[in-house]
Structures are given as C-alpha cells and as structure tokens.
Design a protein that fits this description.
The structure holds two protein chains of two kinds. Chain A is mainly α. The radius of gyration of chain A is 25 Å and the shape is globular. Chain A is built from 15 helices and two strands. In chain B, strands 1-2 form a two-stranded antiparallel ribbon. Classes of the chains: A mainly alpha, B mainly alpha.
C-alpha cells in the first residue's frame, strides 16, 4: 500500500506527504523488539527439547546448535524428543513401567470445552447483540451495562456460590456444567463486541431487502451475518484465548474425567515432590500453545479489525 | 414497527396464559423462595432452575406473540447469564448473612454479624489491611506498565512494513500462554542459582542475583511477569484505534500546516481515547482480581498477599464460606463504586472535549 501513512505522521511528528510504506529498516527494528519480547516463550520452547540436567545446567545450555561454531560447545545442548513422549506416557517411579498420564484426554477436554463454549456463546451472543442493535428496548444502555458488569465482577465473588451450586446440583465435574459456565463467562464480551459490529452496518440495505419482501430471518442470515464475519472471527479468537487458559474455575469445578490442560499442568508441576520437571512442563505448554497460536495467526487480520468496538464511526 | 398494531392484547395479570410473563415472574419468585426455605438444597436448586426456565419461556412466547423480536433474540442470553451469574450472586449475598462452613452441615442466620466483624475487627487487623494496600499497589503498577508498554508496541506496529504479520504474532504470543506456565517459568528465570537472569549477571562479573528475597524484588518480579503477559492486550486495542484513523484527516491537516503535536491531540488522540479507556478499565478489573501469579511466584510470601488470594484462602482452603462471601461483597461494592466513578469521569471528559 503505497499511500499508507506512517505512524510518525499519525502521531504527528512528520509531514503527511511523500512517505510510503516503511522499509526494511523498520522491519529490522521491529524484529529486534519482537524477538526480545518473544524471548521468554522461545526459552520455554527450547527447554521442551532439553533433559532435566540440561535445563538446570550452570552455565546454561542455550541453543541446540553451535551456529557454525559461533557459540562455544558448553552452551549447546543436544535436542531430545523424550519430553514430548513422556507428556502422554511415562514411568512415575524410577525404573518402573511407563504408564499413561491421561494427557491425551486432557487435551481433548480442553479443545472440546473451549471450542463448544466459545461457539455457544457466539451463537447466543450474536442473536442477543442483533436484538440489542436492531430492536432497542427501553433503557437499552442500562441492560447492556448490567450485562457487562457481570463480566467485570471479580471471579472470587461468583466462585463460592458457583462451587456450592455445582456441588449441590451434581454439575461439578461434568462437561455440561463447565461448558455452561464458560458460555456465561464469554457472553457479555461477545454481546458487546458483536453489537458494535451490527451498529456499524448501514440499515439501508436491510430496509431495501424488507421492501422486496424478505423475511426478518432472511435479512439476518443473508444480509447482516455475511457482513460481520470478521467480527465473528475476532470475537471467537478473543473468547478462545481467555477460555483456553482459564485456570481458577477449571481447578475448582472439573473432575478427573473433565480436567483441562492448565489444571493438569499445574498438577504435573506440583506433584511428586521431586521439584519441577522443566522439560516436561515446557513440552506440555508448547503442545498446548500450538492450536491457539494457529487459530490466532489465521484470524489475525480480523482480530485487528474486531477490537475497534464500534468506536470507529464514520 | 407496524406489527405492533396487529399483535394481540396483553393478557390480564390474573389470567393463566403462556405469555403472561408478569404472573410468571411473581409465581417463579414465590416458589423459588419457598423451595429454598423448605426443601433440601439440591432439590431447591432444580426447582429454582425450573422456575427460571418457566419465566424465560413466558418471555419467549410473549415476545413471539407480540412480534417483539428484540426480546425473543435477547432472552436466551439473559437466561444463561441469570442461571450462571446473577443467581449465584444473589445466593452468595444471602450466604453472607449466615454462619456457614461448606464442610459442615449446620447453618445459622447471623444477620449482619459477618459484615460487622469484617468492618470492626478484621479491617483493623494488619494482615487484611496489608492485603488491601498490596492489591492497590499491584493494580497501579501492573496497569501503568501494561498501558505504557502496550502503547509503545502499538506505535511500533501501526506502520505497514515487510513481515509485519509474522512479527506481530510473536508479540501476541505471551497472551496465549497458560498462567501456570508463565508463573512457573518466571520463577525459573528468577532463580538465583540456575536462573538465566542470575547467570547472565554473573557472566558479566556481577554478584549472584537474588530477586525474590525481599518485598521490592518480589513485587517487581510479579509486576514484570504480569505486564509482559498482558501488554499485548493493550497493544491490540490501541493498534486498532491507530489503524482506524482516516487518512484524509492527516492530508487535510498537512494542507492546513497544523503542528505535529497538535495533530496528535486533535486527530489521533480522539480515535484512540475510547480504546485506551477501555483497555484501562479491563486491565484494572483484571488486576484487581490478581491471585494466580502471586500463588505461583511467591505463595503470598514477602508480604505480597493480595485480597483476591486472601478470599480464595478463607473460602476454599479454610472452608469459611460465609465470611468469604461477606468479604467478597465488600470488595464488589468497592469495585462497583470505582467503576462507576471511572465511567462518570470518562463520560464527562468525552462530553467536555
């Protein structure tokens, strides 16, 4: 895009003429900053290929290669895939037979619970957002604020009665309970965000379609929904990131069968009394990062557009 | 809506009809209260749930008969939020008036005594007061750090440049990590013997680096980890604002020879102000809830207990359910007052501008 305006112009430090796309110089600068910012994640990923002794080595073993002799041998470790296999099955006592750790189940739980609840919130929330946007109620803003407030409340306020409610009703440790809880957890955000997208649409097209005899349902599905696909994608990504890593509710409300990866990860770290198995933890986190990383990467452009929250009014 | 004229008249309050939502609410409330008082708790839960479903159904039928699609579309969301958020909140408000421990059966009505005790005895106790001031300190420090770092990162990425997409995802990654992994790995980085920071400092001829030995270091460690993890969130919001400023405004400003500083305040800032405020609000609320990183990094040692961690302790580990609920409600009150104050100020600012 040749006519893009640079950030210095946006911030007003340079004249807004004759400056096109920033060049490789800016890329280099941004790359250095990004890599420094990414460094702690990179170390986690590298640690997943190390043995326990290498993870705790002094001086540290930093890289898997010598980079053609640039790095002295003492800082180099030989990468192993042992951690990744022992995520799923390992011997709990030294020399014992390898047992299944159940992590395949926990990964399935995380994917199933997060995607189901985020999609459910997306369906219910999009309908509600369309309702709020197109058929304003009396005191619409008040309802919206109350809905938002439920998300603003500290989890600690809700968690005691939710624990009690789940214990009493028998929902504790079931998929149904945690999925519904996460749906409610995602709803306010979904409604708010989707409403801002519906508000941005021009009503003229819808009115024209109605005059031509389209039903309300047809207007919604054929005209409105295709225009807010970007918003749906962005809301999905935000909800997924928040639900994927939710720890407190999952810790207190999931059972053995429905345990999610963050809880199991915490137990893998805490259990055993032999200290943290760094390589193993890093391998779990690396595997756990991949799905949400890929989803975010492929929906990235929508994400940027999605967070404007309707403040962009022309 | 023209359809209003065609809709049937609303049923009389006393008529039993599937769309008489006013009657449904009254009946639902009375039955729920009676059920909670008479029936055992597990039966009462399902009765209350059934009543909520009945009220929701009456809303749906009513909305459908009156061609009132707004209500029809909104009601499923309201029903889910009611069962999972509002109902537990009312329940915990009720619990805060009882003496109840979740590992025991007996429950006793004590009125306002939980609150009275909190406000007279506990609030004077140095620990609780320290928890509150620690929370305030964490809120100020983490939110300030996230806003600054997030803003600077957004400025860096607002320009189009080669490989932007790939570098941006690197910066977004910390937000996607599990807080357990972040907490445990930052304790690994901070470790005095094999931690990387300590080893780098030693390699350059420094002393062994012990971060977590005093309060300043422990707080700095927690704030750093939290700011690193959540600055990308602020960045995304600010970046969206920066990208959305229409270009013709700058072109017009260039023609009028508006000074750079003024251009920022009159053109750019109005577009990002709303998002900055939103980021500030969201992060403040999140910071107020902070417990997990503290649990993972210091376990509340070195005087880093937060109020949220304190509530988790009394409610979950010590099973003092009703005391936890009472404390939660005092906190909720504080959060609502602060949020409203904040929104009030933000609204007045935007109207004044």
């Amino acid at each position: 895009m040749a006519n893009t305006i640079s950030i210095w112009e946006r911030l007003g430090f340079r004249k807004a003429s004759g400056v096109g796309e920033a060049g490789w110089g800016h890329t280099l600068f941004a790359a250095i900053i990004s890599l420094i910012y990414f460094l702690p994640v990179l170390i986690i990923i590298l640690t997943s290929f190390k043995l326990q002794t290498e993870a705790l080595a002094v001086p540290p073993k930093l890289l898997p290669t010598t980079l053609f002799g640039l790095i002295p041998e003492q800082y180099v470790f030989s990468p192993t895939l042992e951690n990744f296999t022992s995520v799923f099955s390992r011997a709990y006592v030294a020399g014992g037979a390898a047992e299944s750790t159940g992590f395949d189940r926990f990964f399935f739980n995380s994917i199933f619970i997060a995607s189901t609840s985020v999609l459910l919130a997306l369906v219910i929330g999009t309908l509600a957002a369309y309702g709020f946007s197109r058929y304003p109620l009396k005191g619409n803003d008040t309802y919206l604020f109350i809905i938002l407030t439920t998300r603003m409340l500290p989890a600690i306020v809700v968690i005691i009665p939710v624990i009690l409610m789940f214990r009493i009703s028998g929902l504790a440790g079931s998929y149904l309970g945690i999925i519904f809880l996460y749906t409610a957890f995602n709803l306010p955000f979904t409604i708010w965000m989707m409403k801002s997208f519906f508000d941005e649409l021009s009503p003229d097209v819808e009115d024209a379609a109605r005059l031509d005899g389209s039903s309300d349902a047809k207007v919604f599905f054929k005209i409105c929904l295709p225009q807010v696909l970007a918003g749906l994608a962005a809301t999905f990504v935000f909800g997924l990131i928040l639900t994927w890593n939710e720890f407190l509710f999952a810790l207190l409300l999931t059972g053995v069968d429905t345990r999610t990866v963050p809880v199991a990860m915490n137990q893998a770290v805490a259990g055993g009394g032999i200290g943290v198995l760094w390589g193993l933890l890093a391998a779990i986190e690396t595997l756990f990062l991949i799905p949400v990383f890929l989803v975010t990467f492929f929906l990235q452009n929508h994400l940027l557009r999605g967070v404007t929250f309707g403040t962009v009014k022309r | 809506m023209t359809s209003v004229a065609l809709s049937p008249p609303a049923p009389d309050f006393k008529t039993i009809a599937p769309d008489n939502w006013k009657l449904a609410i009254v009946v639902g409330l009375v039955v729920s209260v009676l059920a909670t008082l008479i029936l055992p708790a597990n039966a009462a839960f399902w009765v209350v749930g059934a009543m909520a479903a009945m009220v929701a159904a009456s809303f749906v039928v009513n909305a459908y008969r009156r061609h009132y699609y707004g209500g029809l579309l909104v009601s499923p969301a309201i029903a889910v939020l009611f069962v999972m958020n509002i109902f537990p909140l009312v329940w915990s408000l009720g619990l805060s008036f009882f003496a109840y421990q979740s590992n025991q059966q007996n429950i006793r009505f004590v009125g306002l005594r939980n609150y009275q005790q909190l406000l007279t005895n506990d609030l004077k106790a140095p620990e609780l007061w320290a928890n509150l001031t620690n929370t305030a300190m964490f809120v100020v420090l983490t939110v300030a750090a996230q806003m600054i770092v997030g803003f600077l990162l957004a400025v860096l990425f607002a320009k189009q440049f080669p490989l932007r997409k790939y570098l941006l995802i690197l910066v977004l990654t910390p937000m996607m990590l599990s807080v357990v992994a972040v907490g445990v790995f930052f304790s690994y980085y901070y470790d005095p013997t094999f931690g990387l920071i300590s080893q780098v400092i030693k390699a350059w001829g420094g002393e062994q680096f012990i971060l977590m030995s005093n309060k300043t270091g422990a707080v700095a460690g927690i704030v750093f980890a939290d700011a690193w993890m959540w600055s990308p969130f602020v960045m995304l919001l600010v970046l969206a604002g920066l990208v959305s400023v229409p270009k013709y405004l700058y072109e017009a400003a260039a023609i009028d020879r508006v000074s750079g500083w003024r251009r920022f305040w009159t053109i750019t800032f109005p577009y990002i102000r709303g998002l900055l405020m939103l980021a500030l609000l969201f992060r403040t609320i999140e910071a107020f809830k902070m417990a997990d990183l503290v649990i993972l990094l210091t376990k509340g040692g070195n005087d880093t207990m937060t109020i949220s961690y304190h509530v988790i302790r009394i409610a979950n580990e010590q099973n003092k359910t009703s005391e936890g609920a009472a404390l939660s409600y005092l906190l909720l009150f504080v959060v609502i007052v602060l949020t409203n104050l904040y929104l009030y100020i933000a609204n007045r600012r935007s109207q004044g501008a």
